[in-house]
Amino acid sequence: MKKLLLALLLILAPSLALAQEPRPDRPHWSVELKGGVLFPDIDRWSTFYGSSSAGEFGGALAYKVERHLEVGIEGTYSHASGKGVQPSHETASGEVTFDRAPLNVFLLGRGVISEDQWLVPYAGGGYTRMFYRADVKGQGTTKGSVDGFHARAGVEFLLDRLERDTAESLYHEFGVHHTYFFVEGRFIRAMADTLTGGSVNLGGSSCLGGILVEF
Amino acid sequence: MKVRWLTRLLVAASLLSVLLPHVALADLVTIYVDPNHAQDSTHFKTIQSAIDQANTNLSNPTNADTYQIQVADGTYSGSVTLKNDSVPIFGTTTAGTFLTTSGTGALISTNGHSNVTIRNFTFKAPTAIAISASGGSGITITNNVFWLPSATAVQVLGASSSSVVNNTFYQNGTAINTTSADLKVDNNIFVSNTIVIQTSVTLSNISYNDYFNNTNNPANLGSNPLPNSVTTNADPQFVNTLAGDFHLQSTSPCKGTGDPNLTGVKDRGAYGGPDSDPAIPATVTGLKATLTSPANPVSILLNWNASSDSTITGYRVYYGVLPAPATPVIAQEGASGFAVSGIGTTTATLTFDSLPAPAAPTGTPVLTTTSMDRALQLTWTPVLGATDYLIYYNTSDRFDPTTLSNNLAIKVDSSVTSYLFSGLTNGTRYTFAVLPRAQTRVSASVTATINGGSQPGNTNESAYSPSVTTDIGSPVDGTLSAQASDYPESVSPYPNVKGTGCFIATAAFGFYSAPEVQALRMFRDRYLLTNAPGRAFVAWYYQHGPSGARYLNAHPWLKAPVRVALFPLVLFSAFLVCTSAVMKLALLMTAGASAYFLYRRIEIRSMARARRVS
């Protein structure tokens, strides 16, 4: 365990030998492109949609108020197709598509110790507006949006050190400070009323990964 | 002593180990010529490149394989030269593989090679020789069509033990030019050639050829020729010479009169013999069955449309009886599969001396229902011995099984064990029961045949026509299933979340799916939610709309005035979302022009007034 912690610290710590030259400015913006899997927080989801998960993809734009703190907006989209429900029979029937697109406004803290840091942990959360649309083939569409919140945390892997020349070139030609690969977990809670009198969380847990560019 | 035997055994094993792989790997390899196939070791774009590949392979002394060259349907231009013994070359079909050239050389030439077969090509060129074989032996030329006006079709010079069998020669300068006295000329058709056989030797192996309208027939027509003393008109009756279709019509004297020693189709010409193109006539249409005598002897009249395929020579009727009779029954025309001779005949009568009554189906169907939106799916277990099922249904909770005939019924075949009732009313209960029945039934199907055919869907026989069935006598009922009752129900999405709609319009027009509400919703999606001010308005409306809708629902008398007030907006929304850009532009221009003319009118009136005042 001690060895593992030591190894993590070594990875987190900046590498002196390969340290890049100090730059006159720091990055102010970041853009993420991400994709992964959403696990809906809805009972019997797999009964109607055939799987306990659905694909999800999206992106985010953030402004770095400080090096360790950023605010931004994130949008993702998830689509599932399967069967609907006959309320009285309580059986799966018909053809239904269910689309969700949460729009998140977030505040995020990043554990940046050095610009040359291998691993950058981060965590944050914020407000969510969950847009949804359910389409029953031959019957019509139900759509709307509800408020909610979200929390997410993950780790970014600095890609610059894999190809130092490329990283320098990206900086000098396009102003890209860093490029990261990241993985994160996210939870959204956005409760929507149902016609049967209850409410259901249209969010759920997601495992996402992608590329983040700082500039 | 033991050592000597052991040594011999080892030597024999060594020899076998050397020889066996070669023996085991010797195989017949087909090299294909197909311009549409990617080239590899067995596929080539041109005939000559395939011949060259075979030659290269055979030049390897360790290669024990034998080769043949198959040419895909298509048109190939240019001359080719064969390079090996015992490598046959053949088209995929005579009617589809064309060889042509604008030159004067031979389309296919072989010099000094033996045991070569050239078959299933159509040669069509104005000035070239189709096939030139010199030297060697055992050249076989079969199932080809030669159509080379003013030129020589086949030239066999000094190639012994060769044969020209089952070919069609049409309008050639010279059909056959040979110096080989033992050349076999058998089962060919010669039509409108200038010279049929040009030779300086006496040919003694000529038989079963048809000669028609040639300028110079050979002095010796050989054995069994056409014309002969019985058949004086030797016109082979090709289907369409202008279109290059040299198939024989059904009334051709060359049909079925070919060399009996040859296997396959007994026709003379390129479409006879063992290697002729497979001929599958078109499927017979319009088959109908009429029960002309319901009591024994039972009689059923079959009618069908005459086939437009001029190559067919007759029809064949297939029939079967359900359930299978315990004792044989005899149809007057004979066993199932009897032939109807004469292509003009498009009727046949099935007459059965006796048909046994069916036994009641054994078992009771188990019925289940599946509810859907405005539909119910009915499924039941099959019952042994049933030839059909009657599905009874009505909209009551139960019905009296003793008065089944009072209910609606649908009859389905015994192969069907499910039925979808659609177009039903959601929430209405329907009750079903299924009755299996056994019925004596005669099914019949017809095929078109050429010279008797082989089997349906194969050479010289069409596929089965759609079958017709005739019910004989009264059905025997089985046991009625237990009644099943269910109701169709609309489908909701899962989870069944509430939507966000136009609250006031929904309240005013009564329901969410009203066309007026739909128009307003589409207007919202297309023209408001696509821009910031529109979205701001929608947000404001969503905040205050529900309270307005609640007030409207609490005071229903207000709904009519609100509907009237909303009507222009609904109309405007419908116009915007349902019309094309051209329509919108036209309206805009009309409005602009109207405004302009109105302005001008006011202006002129004010000028006139000013003039009067002054």
Can you walk me through this structure?
- The complex is a heterodimer of chains A (215) and B (614).
- By secondary structure, chain A is mainly beta.
- Helices cover 13% and strands 60% of the residues of chain A.
- In chain A, the strands form two sheets. An eight-stranded antiparallel β-barrel of chain A has the order 1-2-3-4-5-6-7-10. Chain A has a two-stranded antiparallel ribbon with strand order 8-9.
- In chain A, strand 5 (119-136) and strand 6 (140-158) form a beta hairpin.
- The longest helix of chain A is centred in the N-terminal third of the chain and has 11 residues, at 2-12.
- The radius of gyration of chain A is 21 Å and the shape is elongated.
- In chain B, strands 2-1-3-6-9-12-15-18-21 form a nine-stranded parallel beta sheet, with helices on one face.
- The whole-number mean of residue pLDDT values of chain A reads 88
Distance between the termini of chain A: 37 Å
Q: How many helix segments of chain A?
A: 3
Strand order of the largest sheet of chain A: 1-2-3-4-5-6-7-10
Largest sheet of chain B: 9 strands, parallel
Number of strands of chain A: 10
- Strand tally of chain B is 37
> What is the alpha-carbon Rg of chain A in Å?
21 Å
Order of helices and strands of chain A: HEHEEEEEHEEEE
Supply Rg of chain B. 41 Å
Share of residues in strands of chain B: 25-35%
Global structural class of chain B: alpha/beta
How do the strands of the widest beta sheet of chain B line up side by side?
2-1-3-6-9-12-15-18-21
Low-confidence runs of at least 5 consecutive residues of chain B: 19-24
Mean pLDDT of chain B: 86
